[in-house]
Design brief:
Blueprint (H helix, E strand, L loop, with lengths): L8 E12 L2 E12 L3 E6 L5 H8 L7 E6 L2 E3 L4 H6 L2 E4 L11 H5 L6 E2 L2 E2 L1 H14 L15 H14 L4 E5 L7 H16 L3 E5 L3 H7 L2 E6 L2 E7 L5 H9 L17 E11 L6 E11 L3 E5 L6 H9 L6 E6 L2 E2 L5 H7 L1 E4 L3 H5 L6 H6 L3 H6 L5 H14 L16 H13 L5 E5 L7 H16 L3 E6 L2 H7 L2 E6 L2 E6 L5 H7 L12
Parallel strand pairs: 3-10, 3-11, 6-9, 9-10, 15-20, 15-21, 18-19, 19-20
Antiparallel strand pairs: 1-2, 1-4, 4-5, 7-8, 11-12, 13-14, 13-16, 16-17, 21-22
Helix pairs in contact: 4-5
Bound molecules: adenosine-5'-triphosphate and magnesium ion.
Adenosine-5'-triphosphate binds next to β2, α1 and α15.
Organism: Endosaccharibacter trunci
Protein name: Sugar ABC transporter ATP-binding protein
Keywords: ATP-binding, Cell membrane, Membrane, Nucleotide-binding, Repeat, Sugar transport, Translocase, Transport
Length: about 500
């Protein structure tokens, strides 16, 4: 739609300031949402994206500044108030009740009622219709805790859609979605915009965001630094405005010899509990000290199951895992961490962090065993570890004592990485660790892993982004249907990696 009304501004933030104690999260931001268009908000971790969206959806109030809806100033007293006026938000951190059904989560707080009470049949019908629209086979009565992370994200999206909002804010809606699920979401977004719904989209997957967006806005340190229409920009433009001209996408560390094999997986099998099929099918892999191995694959290729089995989270149905020549059979997760094998899990909300604890407590959580074992409390040493990790992993926080919930999404992810590195491991497994991490921080994490590798750490890094393999790996393993379908060195063309995974090779724009 190109007529003037279609392009008009529906919701506007004027000179918004938000402070949290000494932190100035937003420093006077102007931001406009256009009717029937997608506006993408880009910015580094902690730039203030989520904070701005929380203000525009009634989650929190600005310290100063004005919100203008349809040309008139408004004050949103709550999310319910904002929702009643047509603004709905999909949060970056999933906010579903795990022990409730998909249906009950979608209608929580706005149950459909009939003469006798809640009309569960109607709620079920509407939930099923939403799932069909999102092309996801999820039964409305399934408990949310039984869904994989990506499916939970779909439910979160369905809940926002069910409100029939005029303005829909999506804060990192695709971080756990597969490529085909993203396709479906984009179809839904196009359908919504064609009906006049306005979308705000936030993602650290820059190529993906470029595909869907009409307008781009870049936030940096709480201030808007750039603003343009889609036709005027490309990937380079975003990166330049996000992190400046000094961006370097990195390369695998070199100039040293690998050591002995530290991790040896032989004939590993993992069974699907429900169907009895093999999610990991007789897979063998050796990793040497100092080596960085990337495991590339599509969602469902068995990468997470492999890493979880190696880390002791799920049982092997066959095969063996050895660390420095000794079998890990029967050892608990904690015992494996003691031996020097750690996992940075896929789902940081559920597995990685304790939300009621501080940044510092979370950082030392996995290494606490060694403090206690020595029957000493060593506050000085503990404080040192916390400070080292905050510095090394570039965690943007007021300090070790800050609540974990006060950190931006990407910075929480960095805490999980820091926590595992703090144990001084011999082998680190990382499952899609870069989700939600900005492009600059990603480069920092790569640099840090490269440095640790050159000191002898063995790194196994699972990713569904080809570019990440090329930026970090000495060796690239492609997984498909639970098996290794190909193995490459670091100079392989992108297309070969994708083809080996069973993926259609997309002709996307890349940063050159
Ligand atoms: N509840 C809070 N208490 C204290 N500080 C907060 C709180 N919420 C956000 N902040 C701070 O405000 C700043 C902006 O955070 P915000 O979550 O908006 O970043 P973001 O751009 O969404 O980052 P990301 O890409 O990592 O999600 C950060 O410095 C963050 O630590
Ligand atoms: Mg955020």
């Amino acid at each position: 739609m190109s007529d003037a009304t279609a392009d008009s501004v529906v919701l506007e933030a004027r000179d918004i300031v938000k402070t949290y104690g000494a932190t100035r999260a937003l420093k006077g931001v102007n931001f406009a949402i256009h009717r029937g268009k997608v506006t993408t908000l880009f910015g580094e971790n902690g730039a203030g994206k989520s904070t701005l969206m929380k203000i525009l959806s009634g989650v929190t109030t600005p310290t100063s500044g004005e919100i203008v809806l349809d040309g008139a100033p408004v004050v949103f007293s709550s999310t319910v108030d904002a929702r009643d006026r047509g603004v709905s938000i999909i949060h970056q951190e999933l906010s579903l009740a795990p022990n409730m059904s998909v249906r009950d989560n979608i209608f929580l707080g706005r149950e459909i009622r009939n003469a006798t009470g809640v009309d569960y049949a109607e709620e079920t019908r509407q939930t099923a219709a939403l799932m069909r629209e999102l092309e996801e086979e999820i039964d409305p009565s399934t408990l949310v805790e039984e869904l994989r992370l990506g499916q939970q994200q779909i439910v979160e999206i369905a809940r926002a859609l069910s409100v029939n909002a005029r303005i829909l804010i999506m804060d990192e809606p695709t971080s756990a979605l597969s490529a085909s699920e993203v396709e479906v979401l984009f179809k839904v977004i196009r359908d919504l915009t064609s009906r006049g719904v306005s979308i705000v989209y936030i993602s650290h997957h820059l190529e993906e965001a470029l595909q869907i967006t009409d307008y781009a806005v870049v936030l940096r340190d709480g201030a808007m630094t750039a603003n343009a229409e889609r036709s005027e920009i490309d990937l380079e433009w975003i990166v330049r405005h996000m992190v400046g001209d000094h961006y370097d996408r990195g390369s695998p560390p070199g100039g040293y010899e690998f050591g002995d094999v530290v991790l040896s997986v032989s004939g590993a099998c993992v069974e699907d509990k429900n169907k009895g099929a093999l999610l990991v099918d007789n897979l063998s892999l050796d990793v040497r000290a100092g080596e960085i191995v990337c495991i590339y694959g599509l969602m469902g290729a068995g990468r997470t199951e492999l890493l979880e089995a190696v880390a002791g989270r799920v049982k092997l149905a066959g095969g063996d895992v050895k660390l420095e020549g000794r079998s890990l059979d029967g050892l608990s997760i904690a015992a494996r961490i003691e031996r020097g094998l750690v996992l940075v899990p896929e789902d940081r909300q559920r597995d990685g962090l304790v939300q009621t604890m501080s940044v510092g407590e979370n950082l030392t959580l996995a290494s606490i065993g060694s403090f206690v074992r020595r029957m000493l409390t060593q506050p000085a040493r503990e404080k040192q570890i916390v400070q080292d990790q905050i510095r090394d992993v570039h965690i943007k926080t007021a300090g070790g004592r800050a609540a974990i919930g006060s950190l931006s999404g990407g910075n929480q992810q960095k805490v999980v990485i820091g926590k595992m590195l703090a144990t001084g491991p011999r082998v680190i497994l990382l499952d899609e660790p870069s989700r939600g991490i900005d492009i600059g921080a990603k480069a920092e994490v790569f640099r840090l892993l490269g440095e640790k590798a050159s000191q002898g750490l063995a790194v196994v890094y699972s990713t569904s982004e080809v570019q990440e393999c090329l930026s970090i790996a000495h060796r690239i393993i492609v997984m498909s249907k639970g098996r290794i379908s190909a193995e490459f060195g670091p100079d392989v063309p992108k297309e070969d990696i994708m083809a080996a995974s069973g993926e259609a090779v997309a002709h996307d724009a890349a940063i050159h």
